[in-house]
Design brief:
2 copies of one chain form a homodimer.
Chain A: H1 2-11, H2 13-25, H3 36-52, E1 56-60, E2 67-71, E3 80-86, E4 106-109, E5 115-118, H4 126-140, E6 148-154, H5 164-170, H6 172-175, E7 179-182, E8 194-199, E9 201-210, E10 216-217, H7 228-236, H8 260-267, H9 273-278, H10 295-300, E11 306-313, E12 322-323, E13 326-335, H11 341-354, E14 361-364, E15 370-371, E16 374-375, H12 381-394, E17 399-403, H13 409-417, E18 421-424, E19 439-441, H14 442-459
Helix pairs in contact in A: 1-4, 1-14, 2-4, 4-14, 5-13, 12-14
Amino acid sequence: MIDRVLATIEQRKSQSLEQLKEFLRIPSVSTKPDHAEHMVRCANWLADQFRFAMLDARVMPTGGHPAVVAKNKHQPGRPTVLLYGHYDVQPPEPLDLWNSPPFEPTIGKTEAGTDAIFARGAVDDKGQVWCHVEALLAWQAHGGVPVNLTCLIEGEEEIGSENLEKFVHAHKEELKADVLVISDTGLFARGVPAIGYGLRGLVYEEVRLDGPSHDLHSGGWGGAIQNPANALVELLATLHNKDGSVNIPGFYDDVAGLSPEERAAWKALPHCDDAFARDLKLSKGDLVGEAGYSTLERIWARPTCDINGLSGGYQGPGAKTVIGSWASAKVSMRLVPNQDPKKVQMAFRQAIRDRLPNGVRVTFTMDDHISKPVLTPIDTPAVKLAVEAISEGFGKPATFTRTGGSVPVVATLREVLGVDALLVGFGLPDDRVHSPNEKFDLDCFYNGTKTAAILYDKLATLKM
Amino acid sequence: MIDRVLATIEQRKSQSLEQLKEFLRIPSVSTKPDHAEHMVRCANWLADQFRFAMLDARVMPTGGHPAVVAKNKHQPGRPTVLLYGHYDVQPPEPLDLWNSPPFEPTIGKTEAGTDAIFARGAVDDKGQVWCHVEALLAWQAHGGVPVNLTCLIEGEEEIGSENLEKFVHAHKEELKADVLVISDTGLFARGVPAIGYGLRGLVYEEVRLDGPSHDLHSGGWGGAIQNPANALVELLATLHNKDGSVNIPGFYDDVAGLSPEERAAWKALPHCDDAFARDLKLSKGDLVGEAGYSTLERIWARPTCDINGLSGGYQGPGAKTVIGSWASAKVSMRLVPNQDPKKVQMAFRQAIRDRLPNGVRVTFTMDDHISKPVLTPIDTPAVKLAVEAISEGFGKPATFTRTGGSVPVVATLREVLGVDALLVGFGLPDDRVHSPNEKFDLDCFYNGTKTAAILYDKLATLKM
């Protein structure tokens, strides 16, 4: 049966790509208040696609952007699979760095010479969601997917899934499942498929400093009052130590160490700092991080503190001799097991308040953009089946990897539904996720679709 | 005769205000490349006004925005006065903080309860230039101004007068004068007119740090590469010492100290830190600056280093977990006698290069936005006449003050023409120069016009 499903996927390749383009043309940027209508349009479009696959699909309200929930007819004796994904995307800015418009999906060559589809959301996460929808459509042509399936595709992943926890609590029964499948990560490298077992958590803060009541002439006042921009850089500069570690009291208290086995396993992975740096047009010497850790360890197993945005004073062309009345920074911390986001957030704010220079007032304008770090067991029957599925789908043996990014819902779903996630990702490290010219290799797109189809076939064999 | 001139000024009050409004409606923002046509329009408009006063006016090309040069018929035996001013203005941003549109001049109440005209350029410098034009118009009604007058009104003061030096050299003969008059500063306070004798110099830099070739997902890369925004705050935070002094090697080498007499004279001025802070909605404790100096000393006699702009990463609404590929800052240093801008600029760049964190490259994108500090003698016959003129014009005894701002041309004109400036300013400390809601008190506008008329009358008595 699976062979016929895969044959259908092969036949439908071009239709599938056209459908993905439709999906990508909708600018579903969740963080922009004025994009709310696009969010609703995107959710409705996606629900329709699930209906084509004969699922019962509904666009359901949350405290924020709606979620799409789709189910096939559940039959007793079959394992129940919960598929999670998100239809929202990151802002496309800076627009001038895109080689093609972010919401006009374009087929082109990657720097590696492969073919890919370029668009915001191409791989994060619309493209990977579409792999599953296409797999369902193919299965539908052959009697339907052989598991009890519930799909939950949300619209707020890129803004911290702020309303999802309440939503999952409210629909606990409806979402109950034996296995959770998420395709929002990636291969370790081209030709090296992987199953993820770790995600970093997140605390995202906006720190705003206010000084004088209005902008001032830097000649008339400079030197006699606190300049909020001066104060901001002085403040933010205290967040790191010389050795690259984060300088926030208690920040490392709960950080889980790395086992010698894990460090050894990662050393064995085909990672090359030179190539890693070259992809960023940097040299190996430009790789800067916490002393005593390798690049993979720094990304997968160590917490960070990064400035994601800086604003203050005059930013237009040329010169303006002004002391801005305020300055602000967006700062995010990536967390690792077993750090507690709430605890880290409080420690961060306390450190900022304790170090606040004279003459400015601080405001924290974001509260709920946090998520917990995750480690999932890798010795379960479901994980073994996932390894088989992606190995067959990509025609190469799969390895185990962690991810430096965060998928807030994973921790939430484990807590509420008691189910662990299978992180079966189809992206590549050079996909420019969150950046201009985001893309999804067409090979990954097709192999990902096959993997999804195979995975459902294998999960059907799970004994519950 | 002067009485009849002053009577004419009194009669023409409302026409004069309407003319100023026309001047202010032209958005002559010199730093914005796309405003070039407005600059030309403004120069031509101003030249026409000089012609109404029967001066021979020309709009003359420079390497950048044009300069307006206007002369009356010079007669032997009369002293020659050079009037300098500028018709360009600072950018109006941030627009949302203006109570009325920056280029729609509006009459309203100040926080002090006085009447004023609100607009970008109201006092810096269009309003003060107009005081002189109006004085010339009034004199014209009575046979013309009694001195040989040359007016030089440039369009690049707010961007460092980059092309003026070459222009002045090229037209040295034509601009030759015995006295230089500049109205681009202000009173010490309401009811306390002043003659300025010192200006700070300026070095304006834009420092840009580039790291990875494109924006990166802060989860996928955070911790393993240098974040240009992190590097920028670390770098800029090194520019000040704990005691508020500037931490650039050699920065203070040439700084002229303050004489006990000068410090005593400034202590005697009616300055109040509480009121100074209150005007900024701050408390006295918020006043931060170099240890060991009073507020006036910090503004008038000590050099500074201020961040005028900060940009990096994502600055839109909400959250974006991105590591920007670059970050930049606009930084200006105010200089005092006898600092050399070129020397300070080199010291600044050397310090930045010496302290540059790993993993980023630095670019300095501004070179010529510098000006020299100035001190002018206060015991000359011309200065004594200027003190009389402004004391009569405002009906209060004048004092001597310095200014924290910079008027680049003053040093240039002294060097090229060998003439010292009379800094006869009509503004007030609360005029919001360079800020939203810039204004010019109507009393200052009218008394400034009278002062200009009286000044020309008195300067006519100068023996050459």
